[in-house]
Design brief:
138 residues; mainly alpha; 6 helices
């Protein structure tokens, strides 16, 4: 299982780099949905160049909002779409590709959110900056 999650992490990191996704997209707001809106077509194009088994493997790694237990900081697939639905008239290839895209976007959001938070000052750093701003001598 760890190997599969590492594969997904590496794939999401590669997508972030190839698509030049900036950590600033993870600023407060609906991170996963924003990533999906801006990059899903490019991600799906890359997925369609992969074989069906690989797309299925990726789709299988998605976290459910209801049935799986996920840790704080992890992003379930539901967060990517926030209430949108798959089209029941689509073929299997399209459905698996859409689910795989959703899984990758959720992992990208998780990675970018962690990066964004690492750039944010801690409360002690914020307090020190406030003190320095009020006291020009320091």
């Amino acid at each position: 299982m760890r190997t599969n999650q590492q594969y997904l992490h590496n794939l999401a990191t590669t997508m972030i780099q190839q698509l030049h996704v900036s950590p600033e997209i993870a600023a407060p707001g609906s991170v996963a949905y924003d990533i999906y809106e801006k990059f899903s077509e490019e991600i799906k194009a890359k997925l369609l160049r992969m074989n069906p088994e690989t797309r299925g493997r990726i789709a299988d790694l998605g976290l459910s909002d209801y049935h799986d237990t996920y840790q704080p900081g992890q992003v379930p697939m539901y967060s990517v779409h926030c209430g949108t639905w798959l089209d029941k008239h689509d073929n299997g290839r399209t459905l698996v590709t859409e689910i795989a895209c959703t899984v990758i976007v959720a992992k990208m959001a998780e990675i970018l959110h962690k990066e964004w938070n690492s750039f944010q000052p801690t409360s002690a750093e914020e307090e020190l900056a406030d003190i320095r701003a009020r006291d020009p001598i320091n």
